[in-house]
Amino acid sequence: MNAQRSGSRPLLAGNWKMNPARASEAAELARGVIGAARAASATVDVALLPPFPWLLGVAELLHETGVGLGAQDCFWEPAGAYTGEVSAVMLSGWCQWVLTGHSERRQIFGESDEWVSKKTKAAIGVGLNVILCVGELDDQFEAGRTDEVVSGQLQAALEYMSPGDSGRLVIAYEPIWAIGTGKNADPEHAYKTMRAIRRVLDESLGDEASSRVRILYGGSANSGNVGSYVELPLCDGCLVGGASLKAHEFARMIEVVAEVYGGPTTEEATTS
Ligand code: PEP
After folding, report:
1. Which parts of the chain sit beneath pLDDT 50?
2. How far is residue 131's CA from residue 223's CA, in Å, rounded to a whole number?
3. Contact 184, 218 (CB under 8 A)
4. Residues with active-site annotation
5. Which of the listed residues 32, 139, 205, 219 has the most CB atoms within 10 Å of its CB?
6. 3-class DSSP state for residue 185?
7. Are 30 and 58 a contacting pair, CB within 8 Å?
8. How confident is the model at residue 264, as a pLDDT?
9. Domain ranges within the chain, ordered by starting residue
């Protein structure tokens, strides 16, 4: 399988979730990734997605490094009486990226497809790049319903999307049973699901707009298995949870992706 087939630059995004507990640890983690990200920057896009309170501090560290910054959620209204929420507009001054529809938001906080769709639309509308997450539960996987579930989530999320917005959209296929479990999906399963995702994108946006949408895999990805995903013709990178909390591990993942795509992986390589 040819990693270059999609023609897109690979993206490795680190979803820190509600970690780490202290600002100093967040700074240390970001600093630990910057070197590898810069070295691979000719080949790989890297984004870090810290919790809201650490965004400004990490933004300063990432300034002019080429490493993207993102939030893990947003609200669609620009401002108002929405206690606890952070709007897409507020993020747009600091971030290039935002996650929508992560399974933890859907499951723990009860986010509906409609909410995910509104958040996605609002974020793209203010110029953010969106990583929209879709994925099936364990029993849906066991019942062979993955394509149906993922396609339904995606169709709902794309409801307000115009083809012109597609360059700002990334889809992360994250089987819920693989998230944080150490049970990463078989690459063949990921590939088949990505084919279904691409079909929905083609039908909803048209082939040309669809071709601008990158598709990632997420779910217990690490430096030992990331190569088997980015080698898939339809896979443009990974959304990484647990492994992105260890700077060395995430840095190694960046190197592996750069190697698969044939780019430089060390400071020397980029400066020689
Ligand atoms: C995630 O939270 O998006 C994720 C993929 O987590 P993990 O890599 O820990 O499975």
Report:
1. 1-5, 268-272
2. 21
3. no
4. 102, 174
5. 219
6. coil
7. yes
8. 77
9. 11-271
What's the pTM?
0.95
Q: What is the pLDDT of residue 1?
A: 41
The CA distance from 176 to 141, in Å, is 9
The atom of ligand 1 lying closest to the CA of 133 is 3
- Compute the distance from residue 188 Cα to the ligand 1 centre, in Å: 19
CATH class of the domain at 11-271 = alpha beta
Buried b (16+ CB within 10 A) or exposed e, 13-29: bbbbbebbeeeeebbeb
> What is the CA(268)–ligand 1 centre distance, in A?
31
Determine the Cα angle at 219 with ends 214 and 222, to 5°.
95
Could you give the CA distance from residue 200 to residue 222 in angstroms, rounded to a whole number? 28
The packing angle between helices 113-125 and 146-157, to 10°, is: 50
SS3 244: helix
Residue of 240, 245, 250 to mutate, ligand 1, most atoms within 8 A of C-beta: 240
> Which runs of consecutive H residues, i.e. helices, occur in the chain?
23-39, 55-62, 88-92, 103-108, 113-125, 138-142, 146-157, 187-205, 207-210, 226-230, 247-260, 267-271
Q: Which residue has the tokens 């150490």?
A: 182
- Ligand 1: atom nearest CA of 172 is 3
| DSSP secondary structure letter of residue 178 | G
Q: How far is the CA of 46 from the centre of ligand 1 (A)?
A: 16
pLDDT recorded at residue 160: 83
